[in-house]
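Student: I would love a firmer grasp of how sequence relates to backbone shape in proteins. Thank you; the sequence and its tokens follow:
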Amino acid sequence: MADFLVTEVKDINVDDIHDLVLESEKEGFRFVRRLYDDYVSGENRFDRDGEALFVAHLMDQIVEICGLNQDPYSQISYMGRVRRLYVHPEFRKYGVGSQLVSNVILEAKRFYATLTLRTDNPVADQFYRTIGFSTVHVPDNATHWLSLNPVNE
């Protein structure tokens, strides 16, 4: 398998993620469409302080996407949120999901003490637990959280 290239994008051409939208909808996921619609409308372009949008390319095709936002459900400024992680089904199990979330975590560490997310997908739940997210004492409107400032660091 060829190497994936993970990059942060400042201004994405939404046509480049249209295939991801369609593929995600076939699986019953609505959140990639929401990312697409919010980006087009300007509601969420991942462009405020502490925000970023990452994609993984294989050749010229975007096969994965994941965003970082200020946590919209928290009044606490030190909380970031993982948003809209999606990996095209043909490219799962190659470790690129972990690589993409690692980039999100590295960026989040520049701005936040805590990173949250919400998922109701059991596979995603296991994925996030495996990379260190906790489901104990979770903030409101989240299912997982990660401390970005471990005590022993």
In short: The mean pLDDT is 93.
